[in-house]
Structure formats: structure tokens, C-alpha cells
Input
Amino acid sequence: MASHSESIIREPLITGKDITYAQITNDILRPVEKMPGRAWWIGFTVASIGACLWVFAVSWTFWFGIGEWGLNKTVGWAWDITGFVWWVGIGHAGTLISAILLLFRQNWRNSINRSAEAMTIFAVICAATYILCHMGRPWMFVYSLPLPNQYGSLWVNFNSPLIWDVFAISTYFSVSLVFWYTGLLPDLAAIRDRAVGVRRRIYSVMSFGWTGSVKTWQRFEAVCLILAGISTPLVLSVHTIVSMDFATSLEPGWHTTIFPPYFVAGAIFSGFAMVQTLLLVTRKVLGLENYITMFHIEAMNKIILLTGSIVGVAYLTEFFIAYYSGSEYEQYTFLNRFIGPYWWAGCMMYGINILMTQLMWFKSIRTNIAIAWVLSIVVNIGMWFERFVIIVTSLHRDYLPSSWAMFYPTWVDMSIFIGSIGVFFTLFLLFIRVLPSIAIAEVKLILKSSSEQAKKKVIEHGHVDPEQLEFYKESLVVFDSVDTADYEKR
Amino acid sequence: MDSNKKYWKGLEELNKTPEFVEKNKHEFAEPIPIEDVLTGGGLAGATPRRDFLKALGFGVGAVTLAACQKVPVHKSIPYLIKPEEITPGIANYYTSTYEGHAILVKTREGRPIKIEGNPNDLLSKGGVSAQAQASVLDLYDSNRLKSPVRDNTEYGWSQTDNFVKKELTAIKAGGKKIRIVSSTISSPSTLAVIADFIAQYPNTKHVVYDAVSYTGIIQANQNSFGKAVLPHYRFDKADVIVSFGADFLGTWISPAEFIRQYVQNRNNKSLEAKKMSRHIQFETGMSVTGTNADVRMPIKPSEEGIALVNLYNAISGTTLPGSKKLNNSNADKAITIVAKELLAAKGKALVVAGSNDVATQILVNSINSLLGSYGTTIDLDGASRQYAGNDAGLVEVISEMNRGEVDAVFFLNANPVYDYYKSKDVADGLKKVRLKISFATYADETASLCNIIAPNHYYLESWGDDNAIEGYYTIQQPAINPVYDTRQAEQSLLLWSDNPVKEYYTYVRNNWDKNLMAKGGLSGQKGWETLLQTGFVKEAEKPAGTYTFSHDLNAVAQTIIDHSNQIAEGNKMELQLYQSVAMRDGKRANNPWLQELPDPVSKVTWDNFAALAPADMKKWGYVDGDLVTIDANGYSVTLPALSQPGQTQGTVSVAVGYGRTSAGPVGLNVGKNAFPFYSLRNGTFQASAPATLKATGDNSPLAQTQTHHSIEGRNSIIKETTFKEYLKNPASNSGKDEEHKTYSLWDEYDHPAYNWVMAIDLNACTGCGACVVACSAENNVVVVGKAEVMRRREMHWIRIDRYYSFNDNGEGGTTREKEIAKLEDLDNVRVVYQPMLCQHCDHAPCETVCPVLATVHSSEGLNHMAYNRCIGTRYCANNCPYKVRRFNWFNYWNDSRFDNYLQNEHTQLVLNPDVVTRFRGVMEKCSMCIQRIQAGKLKAKIEKRPLKDGDVKVACQQTCPANAIVFGNANDPNSEVSKALKSERTYYVLEELDVKPGIGYQTKVRNISEIEA
Output
């Protein structure tokens, strides 16, 4: 057993005393098997009111036309594509966690991947609805699919980044869904085994007849690895293609080669922030502090810091290139972000995304749950403004000053955006109610090697370098789920 | 011999084993259960008979029920007997006349859908103003009166006739006065009808007045030369033009004609001949003419007279009594320079003034006389008949009415209750008149106070003629049967005066047979038919006589100075009234095309406003849209303020023609009526007055189609040079002589047969906006209304961008917003107009980004738009550097919130059937009138000949009075457009993007002398 345990200078991934496999199942399935608490009901009510608002505003748009939004002859995209890119970006963290971190054997992902992947799927749903809603004639959306038709050679335009987008988003959604569901299978079987009656039948169907035999597990592992392999390029490709919606245009402020890496970094940045926003609440409300520990929180904050800094560098590069290019339109566009009528949006974008994330350099901030939660929300506000600035402030003053115009959102614009958040949270709250929000099987996998109790056992066995032990103990101080007094006794 | 041989396929068959026999029985089909059915066991079979009948019964019932749903049926009734001259799908053109211009009326299947210029029109050679273009829409206006009205109830024509005739007989017997009040009538036949009427009722007098009056000029000519006429001005013969507040390119007398004349000395052809006229404008508010001037001097209305006195002094070398320097040193300096230039161009100079003051116009006459303009740039013999109003006449009638001396009054094309400055006097006077008859087509402000409205035909339904200038007679013929139960006013007058000629058509015909046809060398039926085909007759041109002014000017100068002092009284703001290019005197206020036509200078739609100098706005802390109450001449209105560069400081300009209170739903209460600000002085209406301004504290935003007014130093958009530079190097500042190496990612398109391109001469375009209305009429472009324009969603396929630059004694002027904000003096503003429409780029950015190939390139160099394929992602519009694509935000055709005009089944008749209307959610844009290209190609094909240059004219090009737009095939090196694009002045907007636009622009050239530059 000792050979399986890892070095104690690594912080534990599961905390708590006397955690057994059964205990894990009990803890994680508690919200699924019991009636939800008050917090859930309050959250669900608010979220579903938001979702109803979304349904109303979208129906309104479909009934009267896109004119109900604040767009005009100059600004043809605004909150719609801002919302779309924002949601797609948020989705990216899930894929990164489930695919890339799996390939890199980052075991800490095991506690957060399930929720993150669910978040991905719900975020992509929100993004996809934006694509549909923003069309002038959504009932004709089939034209954007390369379907055989009676018009002879009429095909979609493979030169158009919007077509790449259709492929990218649909691939992304289907692969994410399959990957997520595949991962769910053993856990669904666990619920099935404990459930009775109708629930048992439903979960039985959903678990695809999982038997838990060695062969099943072996195949499960293989499929997950293959899907991770398929998903990995998607982490990079999807937002690259989304960025090309802008980068391949002529529009100053959009026509930029730096966009793909810059957008991918921004996507992961906002995605991790959203995971943080969700999990900090979830672990508290569902009592999962032992599985989503301070280590996880800090690790995610570090990724936020890294990607946020990449985004910051991208901003500076853009400014430099605008200056260096000598293109007056480009220069004006970037100047306009500060001195134009939307200066406040520019300040939100640069202020939050560059300055606020730099606070994460401080461990005390990274490990402070309240601050981390606020910052995670602030990051997504900043990222929303980033997309708003890129889209609206570029469009509203481009080449011909005669057509310069302002964009003012209407109540429909706002309702659809707020509503989409409602839809997202409705789906997420339903998810934690009916499916395990942490991958049970995967957490069990690391119980024997990386949990606090495993480490305690190692310490009890002696043979630990006292310097390393001291280091380990110090690292535990910030954990809100660990009673450090335990270690003092020894 | 029969063979008994038996063939078998296998041993089983040979041996007939029981299995084989059994199998063989079912080899091909299952047996039909006939036996089962006959034995009654069939009811248990697979499809029992009863079930089948049940299903059949239900099916038939369901299908029958479904078929009962009423499917909308659009009846399209073919011609039972096809009229000989009408072929469905082929347009017919009829000659007619609009305000004295010879025009062509394009009709489709018997309904007029478009006004086009008659290329042989003496006045504008095929150019048509925005008003004329828009006039076709009013034909179908469902708010026109549909039958005669007596005391606000519908009345039959025969009853009306009986009533009127009985009354007239009684009035004739009573001996009291009968008055016919009309705006200027230049139709010889109408005038003859009125003369006949007067002969029948001798106590009748015909009183002519115009809402915007030219009495000052007419009386000045009476005083100076004994000829009470409006002269025919010849801007084409003038090398130096000096205008004092005359907006001759926008609204003054005959703008469409003057644009053509004016541009002749400034367009590419003239420049290539090294010739360009010089134009100096002194004015108060920024007019279209002012924006086109080489030098523009803002002066106050009170300074205009003094400036003219000083100009006279400088030219004549004398000093009139009362002369004094202006408070405005720049204007003073300009007067001296202008005097020198005018003298140098003696015989080729022209001074015009917009004032309606007789004394001022006498002074202008004397200046023109000194400059030798009579006989060259001013023709008093071939005079204009476009305006003949006498202000005093109307005043007299109103006082007669108020004194109770008038028993009958007729209003023909006149609406004094709206446009007379003392509206209440008219209304009160009318109460004392026994018989009040209006021939108005709408129940306008005056007509609604009349006992009888005998609605006139619209001009497109009427016979008639016109005589805009001496010796030029145009014929008017109906292009459609009357849409409503109306009757031509002349016909009514003929009937009421018991004229022996009962039909107005016969009357016109007789008149032409007797008097007019001979002038054009025509006679008889053949001559009449020729006339109807050519549209006009013209007398041989007579050389204009020279006139010399020889009167004493001392008293005149004194009157002018007094008038100036009166306006400048009390150091108040000075109010100037003007006509807006779109709305003019307000007669067409119910025309949505005109309401949505942006004012060329301010770009405001759907409103009038108080134009204030930016410096004044800043001084008082006003922002655009702040409501200010203007108080002058005992009348006040509250209007939104607009910061108008070029507006003279200390003045405010307000357009008349707005604020109709009885004009139909479109024009109702749009803006505020400014006519009551007029005053009567020395027998003429005066358009300026001292005024006070007060902010109300509220703000009412204006709907402008352009809100950023400078080019931000982006000189790849607008390229301009001076005439001096141009003479040195014709490619000056056009970039034509610069070489660039370009690299392209894209394949070049082949244009095997045609490559449709366009050339636009920025030096010819005056910004008048006729093309915008022509395009709307041709391409069924919707009107979206004020609220949507405010949201920047107007749908015009062609727009005219207007940019200001401020001359800060620097080269090229200041064009950056930030620097402009720092300038003290915003008076010295220069303006350039740029018609902007789809550039039909060969490397079109819109084409690459459309996901569904809804916008694609044609083999003829056009950028097509397939509405049916469009799903409305709007990426094309975002990616268009020229921002010329227009999105259908709403279903404008079926959304009750946009019930401006086109949801009405009458008005829909104006639609061009060759152009599909667009549904909600699709993008649209200029198609280069592809329907016209197609029609031209088909015509050439039928005639078995290749398409010739000029066969296809796009709507904007066709209507442009300045001929600023040239369209054609670039593959033909001899086409007009190829030649135009070869000009050294040609440049392409945003050329550096290498989108290869199909429209070449030619640089703006300003004739600025060293001193001002």
C-alpha cells in the first residue's frame, strides 16, 4: 500500500477522517438521493424565473424581429455575439479539465471535472441559442448546414468563418456531451444500485447496463482516454475558430492575427472563473469540502492567474501592433477604446482583466474563499466587457465616419442575456439534483494515494523527512476542511 | 409436332416430393384470401372490410374538413381584352410636365410608378428633383379626397355643380366680389380657363401669391426696367457667381435647372478644359448652395443689405448715402475681393440675392447692370414664369374678405390658412365669405374651412400644359385614369362658367391648336401626336436683350439701411427663415419619401429645428436637441436646437414647410410651422426678424442619418484639391500618379461580357438628394419613420455623406474631432458631399463572410444579393467598410407599427413590380438597378444588337440634375464611364484595403484663391 502513496509534500486531494469508498458514495450522492435543501430551492426559483425571462424575450424577438434589439446599420452585432463568445469561452474550462488535465495525469481534476464538464455543456447550449436567436430568419438556419438540396450546386460558403463556427460548435457540443456521459456511466450505475422503484429503472437505462466487471472498467478507461484525445484539440480549435469570426474580417480591431491564442487563453480564463464561481458555492451547499479542497481552489486560481496574464500580454501586444502597423484605422480603433464614447467599457475590460487578476499572485488571496469567489465573478464581468469592447467599440466607429453610430441595448437585449444566465443555472441546478456533481469513481481512484488520511498513515509509519513534514503541515493551514490541531498532537 | 418432352429443374420437381409441392404453391405470392372472405371468415383477416370503410370514411371526412380551410386567394386577373399599347411586364412612358420641366412618366400595367426626366428637357436635360421623384407617391395617397365635400360631408359632383352654379349666379347678381386665390400658375390653358371664368363673372379677380415669395425680384424688375418678371438666370454663362442668401442649388426658383447650369462650369468636362467657375456665397444659415461655394461668408440677415451696398460702392466706385462698414471684418474684406473678381469677369458675372425686399433687389439689379449681366447671365426677355406671385394681392384679398366685400373665393393650389403669416386673418375672413371653394386634393388647412372642396385631379391624372420660361411650352397628359372620384379644377371652372367647351381636354387641345403648336412648327392631328411624344415645343431662342439700370439709388440705399437697422434692432438674435430642400414650402408634407429624405446639410429627417452657430450653442450651454422657444414678430414656437457649423453667430435659422396641422397622417404635426414668423414690409413678405431665444430645459432628439461630421483626417475617403493645384497637376491629391505594389490572396474574377462600374464626380455632386428618392422609388425601399431613423436604421440604398472641414489657416483644414473641439472659429467651414452606395467590390468583404452564399459575385462585376437565401447573420454588413448594407429589422410591410404608407393597398400600387419587396430578417443593398440592366439587355437582344453605352441608366444616375453619376460597362473602352474613370482625378474610396471597389470617385476641386487658402 505504501508504494501507492505519493510524497507528502503534495497537498492532499481528499481531506477528512475515515473516508471510505462507501463514505465517498454517500457524501456525493446525498444531494441526488435526498430532497434538496432550502438553498437549492431558492437558487432554482431565481434561476427558473431567469429562464422564463429568456423564453419570453426570445419569443418576443422571434415574433417581432431582430429590430427589438438595439442594433443598427453600423453595429450589426452587439450583446448577441458578445453573449455567444462569452458562453463558448466559459465552456472551455470544462474541456480543458476533462481532456488536457486527464492526459497530463493531473489527478486533482478528478474532483472538479464532472461539474466543469456539465458547465461546458450548459454554456455551449446557451451559446448555441444565441447563434440561433441572432439570425434574422432563424427558421432558415438549415441553410447553414451543408445538406444536399434541390438547388443543384448550392452549398454553404466554406470561406465563411461562420460556417467553420457551425462545425466547431456542433462538434464541440457533441464530443463534450459524449465524453461527459461516458464518464457518468459508473456513477449512474452506483446510483442505480442504491435506488429503488422508478428511479432505479431510469438510472438503470441511463447507466447502459454497467456491470462493473474488470473488462467494463478496462474499456471505460480506454474510451475515456480516446475521448480525451479527441477533445484535446477542441480546447484549442473551438475558440480559435470563434476568434476567426472576427480575425478574418476587415474590421479594424477585429482583423488581428493574435486573436486565436488570445481568445483561447481568454476562454480558459473565463471558464475557470466560472468553475470557481460554481464550485465554491456547490462545495459549501452540498458539503463537499472534503473533495473539493483548498488545493483545488488554489490550483484553479493559479490557472486563472496564468491565463489572465496571457490575456494581458495579448492586450498589450494589440496596442503595440496598432501603433507599429501605422494603420490609422487600427490606431483609431484602439485609441477609441479609451477616449471614445465607450471608454467605460474599455476601462472595465482592461482594468479587470489585467489588474484584478494580478491580485492572484498573493497566496492569501488565492486561498481566501470569499475573495476568490468575488474575483471569479469579476473575471467573468471583465471577460464579458472584453467581448463587448471588441465587438461594439470596433464596429461603432470603423472606416467611414459618416456611419459612426452608438449602440444602446434595449430591454430585450438585456433580458436575453440575463435570461441565458437563468437558463444556465437552471440546468446546472437540475444537474446537481439528479446527477453526481463529483465523479465518484474517479475520486475513489485517488483515495488510497492522495487523500489526507493516506498521508496521515504515511506519517504514522514514520520514515518521513521532518522537513517535508513541516512543509506539509504548513501547507494545510489554509485548508478550511482540515483540522490542523490533529497534527499538533503528534 | 407437339413435344411431350418435360423439362425439370431438379430432382424434387421431377419426383414431386410433398415438400416441393407445398413450397411451389407459395413460390410467388401469398394467396389472396378470396375464399376466406367469401366464407365470412374474412372479418378476422388482416384488413377487414369494415375497418377499411371506417378508415376510408374518416380519411375522406378529414380531407374534406381540411379543405374547408380558406386559403388566401390572390386574384390576378389577366386582361380580358388586352389594351393595344400595354404589354404586361413592359413599361410605357408618357411625356408630361412637372413644375414646367418636361418629364417622362413610367407606367407599368397602366399605373405610373416612377417619374423620369425627359432627356430633351430644356431646363434640366433629364435631371429630376427629389420633389418630382417623390410626387408619384402622392398619386396613390389614400388620404386624398375621394369625392367632393360640402361642409365636411361627401357630396356628389352633380349636386356640387348645381349648388355652386346657383350660388355663383346669385353672387353675380348681387355684384359682390369673386376672388380666385392661387399659387403661381404657369399653365397657359389654365390661365385661359380662368380668364374665361372672369369673362363670365366680371367681378372676379385672379390673385396670385406664393408661400415663399419672389415678389421682391419681380417688382424690382418692374421698377428698374419696366418688366414685372422673374428673369431667367443663366448660371452656366457665369464665370463668377456671387450669391447673397439665394439658395439656387437647393430651393431658389428652379434648383434642378440651376444645378445643371452651375455644374457645367465645374464638372470633369469643364475641368479638363481648364475651366472652373468661381462661386462666393454670403449667407446666414448653411444652405446647400453655401456648402457648394468656393468661398462662403457667414453674415447676419441685417448685414446682407449693407454688404450689397458696399459691393455696389466697390464696383461703381461711388458711395451711396448711409453706407457703413460691417461689424464683420472678414465679410468686409471679402466684399472688396469679390468686387474685383466680379469686375474682372464683367459680362460673365452674376450676382443674385435671395431677399424678397424690393429695394435690395433693385440694388442687385444695378450691380448686375454695372457688370453687364443683362443679356448674358440674366435673361429678362426669355423670362421665367415659375413664380409670379404678388404678396400685396393676397393681403388685399384678405382684407376684402374681412371687410365682407367678397362673396365667393376659390383656392387653387393655395393654402393661405397654413402659409400666410396671419393665418387667423384668413380664417376670420373666410367666415364672412358666402361661397368658399377649394380645389385642394387633401382637406388641407384652408380647404377644411371651405363650404365646398371640389378635389382636383392629381397632375398625373390631368391634361394640361406649362410654360416655365418664355417660349418653352410643355404638355401634360394623364398617365392613369383618376384614382378617386375627383375632377380637374379647370374642368370645374369650365362647367361653372358655362363655357362652350365642356371638356378640359378639348380646351387644352384647342388652345394648343390655336396658339401654341405653331410655336414649335407643329400643326394638326399629326402635330398633336408629335407633341405628345416629344412633350414640349420650343420657340427659336432669341438673344437676350441687354438692359441698363439708370435710376437713382439714394432712396433705395436708405430703405435698405433702414431695413437692416430694423432687423438688427435691440441686439437680439436674428431669425432667418428658409425652405428645406426636402420639404420646400410644405405642400408635400404628407409624402413619406420626402420626410425621410435627410436634409443635405444637417442630415435631419422628419423635423425642422433651430439651427444655431456652434459658438452660440457653447456659449449658452445647449446641446443638440435642446428645446428652445423662438419668439419673433409676436409669434413663438419651440423647436429642438441643432449645432450647425457655418451658421452665422447671433442668428438662428428655421425651415418653413413643417408643422402642418391638416396634411394627412404622415405630415401631421411633423415639426413646427414657421410661416407665422414672416412679416410684411413695403408690400412684400420678409423672412428675417429680430428674435429672442429661451431654452425650455427639455430635450427632444433629432433624427439624423449622420451624427459624426468630419473625416478624422482620413484622406483615403475624401480627396480634394484646389483649382490652382489641379491646373498644375490634374492628378493633384488624387493619388492616381502614385504607384503601389499590391499582393492579393484572391483570384481575379472574369468579366467576359460586361463589367458594370460607376464614376461619381464629387465636384459635380451638389448633395441635393434627388438620387436618394429616385432610388427609393425604383427599388421599393421602405420608409421607417422618425423613431427608427433615430435608432440609425434608415433603409436608403444610396446616401449622401456630408463632411465638414474647418479651415484653420492650415493646408487641407482641420478634420479631426478633437482638434475641431479646440477651434475658436467654426465659421470657416468647408463641406464636401459624397454619394455612398454599394461599391460592388471585386474582392468584396461581404461575399467571403456570408455563411450561406446569399451574397455572391456575378460575372458582370456586380455583387448580388439573394434575399431568399439570406438567413440574416449580418456579418456582411459588419464587414462592409462602406457600411452600405441595410438590414430589415422588422417586417416593414406587415407590421402595424410602420404603417407609414406601404401597407395600404392603394399606395402599394406605386411599387416597382420588377423589384421584389424584402421580408424581415434579410439584408439588402444597392443592386446597381439590376432590373434595369436586365431590361436593357433584353431590349438589345430583341432588337438583335449589342448593348450600347447609355442603354442602361441606373435610377440615381438618371435623376441626377448634375450628371455627377456615370454608370456603364468598363469592358467597353469607349463608354462614358470608362472615359470618366480614366480621368486623372479618379480615386477609389479606401483603396488601400484592396477590396477593388467598382465605383471610382473624382476629387473635389475648390476654386480658392491664394488669399483664402
Summary: DSSP finds 32 helices and 41 strands in chain B.
